[in-house]
TrEMBL record:
This is Mediator of RNA polymerase II transcription subunit 20. PANTHER family: MEDIATOR OF RNA POLYMERASE II TRANSCRIPTION SUBUNIT 20 (PTHR12465:SF0), UBIQUITIN SPECIFIC PROTEASE HOMOLOG 49 (PTHR12465). Component of the Mediator complex. It comes from Bucorvus abyssinicus. Belongs to the Mediator complex subunit 20 family. Component of the Mediator complex, a coactivator involved in the regulated transcription of nearly all RNA polymerase II-dependent genes. Mediator functions as a bridge to convey information from gene-specific regulatory proteins to the basal RNA polymerase II transcription machinery. Mediator is recruited to promoters by direct interactions with regulatory proteins and serves as a scaffold for the assembly of a functional preinitiation complex with RNA polymerase II and the general transcription factors. The keyword Ribosomal protein does not apply. It is found in: Nucleus. Its main location: nucleus.
Length: 212
C-alpha cells in the first residue's frame, strides 16, 4: 500500500464546508491534477454491551468498523489504541450476530466522501465529512504512489501538500513514527481516518460541554 497522509482542513473563514472543498479542488485543478472518480470512507462505532460489562466487570471499549472504497473487498475493525483487524466484507454480518457483546451506536456513523485526483505520482482525495444529514468537516488524503516505506517519502509528501494546503499542511502522522522503516499498510491509512473522525466528533461536542 502506498504511503499516505490523512488530515483535517479547517473551513475557510466566511465560507461553508462545500465552498472550502471547492476552493481546494480548484487549487488542485490549477496545479494540473485530473479527476479520477470518487471515494468513500465510512466508520460505525460499536460499544461493549452493558450486559457484558456488568457480568465480566470489564470497562467499556469502543470498536470502529470501517470501509474504504479503495479496498472494496475488505472491512477494517479498529480498537482505540489497539490492533486493527482486516477482514473480508461480510464482517458486518458477523457484527449483527455479536450484538450481545457489541452494540452499534447508530447516531455516531460518520463518513468522508468526495473526489479523487491524480497528479503525477500523487493521488489526492478531498472529502466532505458528514454525520447524519450535516457536513461536519473536510478531510484530505494524499498518497505517494511509488513508495511503501513511510520515512522515505515524508519530505516529498510534505512539499506537495504545501503547494495546495499552504498553512494548513499537517505534521507527520503518528503512524509514520511507529512504522520507522517497515512497510506501510492499508491499516495505517484507516488508523489515520479513525483519528480524524474522532477529532471531528469531539469538536462537535465542545459547545455542549460548555453549556454544562
Amino acid at each position: 500500500c502506498p504511503c499516505c497522509s490523512v488530515a483535517q482542513v479547517p473551513v475557510a473563514e466566511g465560507k461553508s464546508v462545500q465552498q472550502t472543498v471547492e476552493i481546494m479542488t480548484r487549487k488542485l485543478e490549477l496545479l494540473g491534477a485530473e479527476k479520477q472518480g470518487t471515494f468513500c470512507v465510512d466508520c460505525e462505532t460499536y460499544h461493549t454491551a452493558a450486559s457484558t460489562i456488568s457480568s465480566q466487570g470489564q470497562t467499556g471499549k469502543l470498536m470502529y468498523v470501517m470501509h474504504n472504497s479503495e479496498y472494496p473487498l475488505s472491512c477494517f475493525a479498529l480498537f482505540e489504541n489497539g490492533p486493527c483487524l482486516i477482514a473480508d466484507a461480510n464482517f458486518d454480518t458477523l457484527m449483527v450476530k455479536l450484538k450481545g457483546f457489541f452494540q452499534n451506536a447508530k447516531a455516531n456513523k460518520i463518513e468522508s466522501r468526495g473526489t479523487r485526483y491524480q497528479y503525477c505520482d500523487f493521488l489526492v482525495k478531498v472529502g466532505t465529512v458528514t454525520m447524519g444529514p450535516s457536513a461536519r468537516g473536510i478531510s484530505v488524503e494524499v498518497e505517494y504512489c511509488p513508495c511503501v516505506i513511510a520515512n522515505d517519502c515524508w519530505n516529498l509528501l510534505l512539499e506537495f501538500m504545501q503547494s495546495f494546503m499552504g498553512s494548513h499542511t499537517p505534521g507527520i502522522p503518528s503512524v509514520f513514527g511507529a512504522k520507522h522503516d517497515s512497510i506501510y499498510s492499508p491499516a495505517d491509512t484507516m488508523v489515520q481516518y479513525m483519528e480524524l473522525f474522532n477529532k471531528i466528533r469531539k469538536q462537535q461536542q465542545v459547545p455542549v460541554a460548555g453549556i454544562r
